[in-house]
Specification:
InterPro entries: M28_fam, Peptidase_M28. Pfam families: Peptidase_M28. Keywords: Aminopeptidase, Hydrolase, Metal-binding, Protease, Signal, Zinc. This is M28 family peptidase. The protein contains 13 helices and 20 strands. The longest helix is centred in the middle third of the chain and has 20 residues. Helix 11 links the parallel strand 18 and strand 19. The protein folds into 2 domains: 282 residues, Aminopeptidase (3-Layer(aba) Sandwich), CATH 3.40.630.10; 154 residues, Glucose Oxidase, domain 1, CATH 3.50.30. It is α/β, with parallel strands linked by helices. The strands form 3 sheets. Strands 1, 2, 9, 12, 13, 16, 17, 18, 19 and 20 form a 10-stranded mixed beta sheet that branches. It has an 8-stranded mixed beta sheet with strand order 4-3-11-6-7-8-10-5. Strands 14-15 form a two-stranded antiparallel sheet. It is 32% helix and 22% strand.
């Protein structure tokens, strides 16, 4: 077919209502594996240094995404006619001027000792070692430093044996109880499992804690009581009778810019174009961390979440090719890894009227695990915000990729609380119908090995097509998805 004639025919298919099926097929064919692969290998490259929130690397990746959205024909929908919505990311960290000693031994911060969270403290008090913290009494520990070894004793959380969760679970189990009894400071000493996690703690806890104005995420575990984590080899030292902790701990605060990238495809219906189907993901990851000397230190986050970031670009191209009745809004959220801060900010400060957002289709990690497996969260009560939206998504899966859906991770009883750990959550809290697409965690999750070559481009493409089929149906229906009567999340 001559190129001019081909252009005319394609144009007719996309504009004449007599050909809706062919037009949609042409649009979905715009979601191409070769485009997704090219973009994935760029965004998850070392060039962006792991896209850590609040850094120039996150901003650089955001500019790249905005430029790709512009090239694809998406219009800016951020602040002041741009593709960007900036917000302040507040960081509090332990100062390098802090000093910690036990007896005559000085401890080097982030090597010999982890300060679990930022705090201001001046401690010069005796250490009481507890073989079993459950036996602690106020009479014994008030005004003293409590030391104990990590242990899963008395903890029923099924995640406690996962080494990356072990430290946080044990600390949260005992720290508040001991502080309530009057402990002046608390020292946790590694056992074998905690020692495995210790190098990771030195690289994560040294960042401190993050916050945005008005957010309730990432509150401190304790208020003013320092929590220290020592390596296993210090056990004999802290058990010695008569030992004293001398610690002067200072914290410092900084404000960094983070950003949401926001773009749209205008709908073709004069009335419904003022409503939006929101597609979302996050572009940030964990940046550079020196967990093991001499090994890869860049957390490129190919699956988490470059996979979704490039899928949204492909979905956007499909909407540009065939605009639906409603408009489509695309948001690449910043600072998700810090605590869902970009989505929280946008849900509180949307660039379109909040009531005009009819549904949120969010995804996080869509390129790993079995090729025919997937999860759709927001399907099972109490997470089901809209039966209408759920049915549309399930029908789209039946028409499209035909994934076998894992429903276990959507249950309120699932120990990982996966539903609450991605960017649809702040919107669901605002009673906006929302779904969460994922291929779920895997062995490379939050490691430097989460690289582009480990992922299935075909699977990412199928997820993108599934989200597109869901979104285009929502965008073309006369009625918006209805909120589930009595919808209320368990937390």
């Amino acid at each position: 077919m001559p190129s001019t004639l081909k252009t005319i025919v394609t144009s007719l298919l996309l504009t004449v209502p007599l050909f809706p099926v062919l037009a949609q097929r042409a649009a979905i064919n715009a979601i191409r594996q070769e485009d997704i692969k090219r973009d994935l290998y760029i965004l998850a490259d070392d060039h962006f240094r792991g896209r850590e929130a609040g850094t120039l690397d996150e901003l650089k990746a955001s500019v790249w995404l905005a430029e790709q959205a512009r090239k694809a024909g998406l219009e800016p929908a951020g602040d002041d006619g741009t593709y960007f919505q900036f917000f302040p990311l507040i960081r509090e960290r332990v100062s390098d001027k802090s000093t910690i000693a036990i007896g005559n031994r000085m401890f080097t911060l982030w090597k010999d000792v982890v300060v679990y969270e930022p705090v201001f403290a001046d401690v010069n008090d005796p250490i009481v070692f507890l073989d079993d913290p459950a036996t602690a009494t106020a009479e014994r520990i008030r005004g003293k430093v409590v030391a104990l070894q990590f242990s899963d004793k008395g903890i029923n959380d099924p995640r406690v044996h996962i080494y990356t969760r072990y430290g946080a679970i044990v600390v949260s189990t005992w720290a508040r109880k001991l502080a309530t009894l009057g402990a002046k400071a608390i020292i946790f000493v590694s056992d074998d499992l905690a020692q495995k996690a210790y190098p990771r703690a030195t690289q994560y806890n040294n960042r401190g804690s993050y916050q945005i104005t008005g957010s309730l995420f990432h509150r401190q575990l304790l208020n003013g009581v320092p929590i220290l984590w020592l390596p296993k080899e210090t056990l004999d030292l802290v058990r010695l009778p008569g030992q004293t902790l001398q610690a002067r701990i200072f914290s410092e605060s900084f404000t960094y810019p983070s950003v949401n990238v926001v773009a749209k495809v205008k709908g073709r219906d004069a009335k419904l174009s003022n409503e939006y189907v929101l597609f979302s993901g996050h572009q940030d990851h964990d940046g550079i961390r020196n967990l093991e000397p001499g090994k890869d230190s860049i957390f490129n986050g190919a699956d988490d979440n470059a996979s979704v970031s490039v899928a949204l670009l492909a979905i956007g191209k499909a909407f540009v090719q065939q605009p639906p009745r409603r408009s489509a809004l695309f948001i690449w959220h910043g600072s998700e890894e810090r605590g869902l801060f970009g989505s929280t900010w946008y849900a509180d400060n949307p660039t379109v009227p909040r009531e005009s957002i009819v549904a949120v289709l969010n995804a996080d990690m869509i390129g790993a695990n079995a090729p025919d497996s997937a999860a759709l969260l927001g399907v099972i009560p109490p997470h089901r915000s809209s039966s209408d939206l759920v049915n549309i998504a399930l029908e789209a899966n039946a028409k499209g990729p035909k994934f076998k859906l894992d429903t276990g991770w959507d249950k309120a009883s699932h120990p990982e609380g996966w539903y609450f750990r991605s960017d649809h959550y702040p919107y669901a809290k605002k009673n906006i119908p929302a779904l969460f697409y994922s291929s779920l965690p895997h062995a490379l999750y939050h490691t430097p090995a989460d690289e582009s070559q480990t992922l299935s481009i075909e699977k990412i493409t199928k997820f993108a097509q599934w989200m597109y089929l869901t979104g285009i149906e929502v965008a073309n229906r006369e009625q918006r998805p209805a909120l589930e009567p009595g919808f209320k999340l368990e937390r």
